[in-house]
Amino acid sequence: MNIFPFSPALLFLKLVLTLTAAAGHNPTELAGDISINCGSIGASSARNGREWIGDVQLKLSSLLQIQGSSTTSAAAHKLISGDPIPHKTARVSRSQFSYAFRLKLGQKIIRLHFNPSLYRGYKSSRDLFTVEAGSFTLLSNFRASITAGALGVKSFSKEFCLNLQENQQLNITFSPEIGQLVDTYAFINGIEIISVPASLSYFQGGDVGVQVVGHKSLVYVDRHNFDGMFPKWALQKAYKRKNETWKIGVDVGFRYLIRLHFSELGIKISQNGELVFQVLINGMIVETNIDMVKKGDESNIRWYRDYMVMMRGHKTEGKRDLLISLQSYDDLIDGDGLVSGFEIFKLSNPDNSLASPNPSHPAQDSPPKTIQTLLLVFGQRNAIATIAIIILSLANIIVHNFREYWEANGTKEENKPSARAELICRRFSLVQIQLATRNFSDALLIGKGGFGKVYQGLIDKGQTTVAVKRLKSNSRQGSSEFLTEIETLSELRHVNLVSLIGYCNERGEMILVYDYMAGGTLSDHLYKLQRESNTCPSLTWKQRLNICIGAGRGLDYLHTGHGVIHRDVKSSNILLDEKLVAKVSDLGLAKPEDKNKLQSHVSTNVKGTRGYLDPHYCNTCKITRKSDTYAFGVVLFEVLCGRPAVESWLPEEERVLTKWGRDKICKGQVDQIVDKSLREEISSNSLKIFVGIAERCMHDEPKNRPTMSQVVQQLELALDQQDKKQVSSVLNEIASASDDIISPCNNENGRSVKTGKPINITPLPEEQTNSVVVNGKLPYRKRDGATMQKPSRIWSWDVFWNRARLSKKNELATNARNEVIIFTDIGVPLTYENVIRATGSFHINNCTGKGGFGAIYKAEIAPGVIVAVKRLAAGRFLSVDQFNAEIKILGRVHHPNLVTLIGYHASENEMFLIHNFISGGNLERFIREKSTEPSVDWRILHKIALDISRALTYLHHECIPRVLHRDVKPSHILLDEHHNARLSGFGEARFLEASETGTTTSVAGTYGYVAPEYAMTCRVSDKADVYSYGVVLLELVSDKRALDPSFSSYGNGFNIVDWACMLLKEGRAKEFFAAGLWDAGSHDDLMEVLHLAVVCASNSLSIRPSMKQVVKRLELLQPPSS
């Protein structure tokens, strides 16, 4: 099996333990190879005897050509140490240029030499470019000046390996990142191309033996003898010891080839059995002395071994430590003993990229060098003048550095997002933002507001269009809104909420980066664009209804799922994508609703926009979710009328839309407020429903306003009525419908204002979604810092790979940081010590359950404040991936029917997750206990089925990115004392991006619940979760388990799905249901549920419904309330 599937070439970046600043090479390595001294004329020799060829007036034009526009320049500063060749000259350009080499087939080492000096005509430190070799990206957004500063050197080299499978031309291309920010340029000082002998192959042709180790993230392959061709690796000498660990920082998101070289002495000691040892990589055993004896014999001893490891994560996350450990029961000798060295190579990603982020900005050079220079110039002539100059120079340096530090970090702590937000959101540098927007070019300006300006931008090499929202400078209020929006949008993910990609808070700038909404704002389509251009088509009535439904769902998600009040709902804050899908935006004023104070929040300042403000909020300063409902009612009026909430140029009686519109409705003149473009289109029934719900939204008494869930239901009904109506011309029908429109108009006697006839008003159904919170407190992060701990800025998975054996020094340092990273505030301090105390040091008496992950403990953090602590069992390294998955998934998703992640702790000695405590146990226990009860309440079973279907609908259709659970089963469904269900167990979950399906290397889940196509092909989609849900639904309404021994008598393979199908086919469906259920529930409803479950668990993906369809079918089955 070939483990390197990248064709036609595979590319490596060679990393070394000790990076040399200026390359010096053995002359015997260079025979027949080529070395280009860029920017120089003729041949020159390096100190090691290496011959370099200048690329000016080149005589080898048939073998090497320079393409594109570029110039040559000498470095302004001479190197104090190191070889001046090839660092004295460079080829530089502000546009793309390339070197084209004619090479023979085989493996080639490519070394690129950089000296980020000052070059004539180019500003210092303005280098920013990409390097490509053929189809591979070697370096992206690369800044040699930053890299050199981070390494503490003046010059350095980067080394790559390329496999040419046939004689071909190799183009090495240098492309500056073009932008109005700076005069960016690309440069190169030297290029070496070295042929690799076949005896030292880094590429393996044909099939090779592969052994999978450690959850399929680590593999190794035998290779050939090591001949010392490229001795650029090194290990420090050490005394005898039993354990040795090397820690190397590498970029995440790549695979790495690790070549471990064993000494001849070490091999012989191992074969003689004199030394018992094992090799671990990231805590997983990959080699033992026994393995080496089996693989080696006297005629063919392997001098080195190759291993491959995947460092999971996204490239933007930076670096993580890769651990290589030797462990022995006896003393081993490093260097001259068992191991003589190792090499590490980075493998290119599927996108053919090796590029990684630039290192952090280095600190300024220390003053002593400046002082020494001043002393050499002035010291012997005038000591007093020398001292004065030194003092002035130091003061200047200190002031300059302090100013730069203050600009870069002055607002850093003040505007620092939480650990959760940093986990989810991408952080951009100011340079990246300026390049994306062409230094905030007015040509890219797409909007203005109270917050600042919004620009269209391009990121990720121009492949992703984004909206960049820039805060006004010196805005204290904007600073608070900046943090609020990051925190809120990082916690909330919904298809009808705008997605936050990342942020920038560098050098006093506060910038938010969102998905770009090509459709603009709702207000643009309703009236702004039509005023600017008569050719702009008006939105149809169905389009407007769909937009209102989408925006309503977004607000309902904020209200019911998270208790968040938007506070600035208006048409300009409803964005539309290219398909006119509505997304609620601008959550800078959002507030968590205080459910302990009669669902109101007292604010010292009224926030919002004139024309949309709730009068009750303005009069009392008490804000509730019903204030958002009022503002949404104003938006509905805008949609119907096609005009803004306030028109200052109109007569006073028409200036405010709500006052004018409601007055017209009360007078029965609805036809006069409907947008002219809609009058030939709207059906009377659709209009009645729409106007009725808009009026109720703006009721003077907040308690009489509907919830957003009820608003969405009515809007969907209006859409349904419009679909049923075949419209030709209904203008007269609209006029006559005015008499029948229900409008309170401040008339409390229940009579129509126009006719005076009694009106029967049927109340809307109660809100369907129940919100379960921890101990009555809102599970939402507080920003006042009163009870919140300030977590350190770490990535949640940094600690996972450091759990292998560490030195005592590192162990003590890590244990000293016993902190809990908090995602959700529970109203009391949550510390590591509190958790240990509350669980009784994880005493068995507090254990409420166990599983493959570990154990779950009940912990009372404070009187009445109870949480569940899910502790990773010691030594379960495979469970670390599940630990990581739970944090990544639950850290991004929120829904009333999903378990809430409160926080976590992770160190090499202890790892645990903290969830909200669900007191009713899990569905598995519920099903087992109900089988012994004489009667079953069909309403409870229906509620549980509906709750879980809503949770999966959110994950599949409303969450961004979409989530596949992959392990839906009764033990992962938790119930509270009111039988509200919450889905848990996200250890096997994964994100699913734009594509409908994804391929995995292994099947996750539990036997009996895994979809057959997933088990057979490893191709997983949301329909796999639907299958699992179908099995759970069958268990819920029967008294059987998914794989029940009683099925054996039917000869159908111990499968509840086959059993259900058999009973349906034979007309014996009544036998399927649990004892007493058939008599307790509606027979039609039970048969509908059984058919639905069987369809969900169908072997055919095309037959299975979506979870959204499942929810609608279950909602139609409403059991009687009593």
UniProtKB/TrEMBL annotation:
Pfam families for the chain: PK_Tyr_Ser-Thr (PF07714), Pkinase (PF00069)
- Domain Protein kinase spans what residues? 440-717, 842-1117
Q: Can you quote a single GO CC term?
A: plasma membrane
Q: Where does ATP bind?
A: K469
Q: Which UniProt keywords apply?
A: ATP-binding, Cell membrane, Developmental protein, Kinase, Leucine-rich repeat, Membrane, Nucleotide-binding, Phosphoprotein, Receptor, Repeat, Serine/threonine-protein kinase, Signal, Transferase, Transmembrane, Transmembrane helix
- Main location group: membrane
Q: What class of enzyme is it?
A: transferase
- Example GO BP: response to water deprivation
Where does the record say this protein resides?
Answer: Cell membrane
Q: What is this protein called?
A: non-specific serine/threonine protein kinase
Species the sequence originates in: Castilleja foliolosa
